[in-house]
Amino acid sequence: MAGDLPDYYFRIRDNGAILFKVDTENRQRRIELDEIATINLRNGNIKPHGDHTLTAQETALIRDWMERRSAQLARRDLDDIHRAVDHLNLTAHWAQTRATEAELDEVTDALLLAMHDLRTVLIKRKADRLLKGPKAAE
Fold first, then answer.
1. Confidence at residue 110, expressed as pLDDT on a 0 to 100 scale
2. Could you give the CA distance from residue 130 to residue 9 in angstroms, rounded to a whole number?
């Protein structure tokens, strides 16, 4: 089993991860995770843990993980938006076909305000893109 384990493990956390070195070469033959760095995706900071000095290989590993993780999170964000569009369509169908008067009273104002806010933001952003011209679409 130990041969199948990676040399490093990223524990995901808000805004980044903690990088551990996987150690299986100890007397008890247990898997130990030695914390070696904290990674912040938001600002790009990499902080070695304790007295550990990151090697060039570890730094490259971290930078590669940061790039892949950022791309993955961006894909998830876009997927969430596509799901929100689906939910809006399902909500419209629910409101038209199944919602009771009490249920509509409970959610109408909140939905209208959220949709107005979203509409305002989308129109402003689209106008900004149109004013910038074709280069903004790239």
1. 97
2. 45
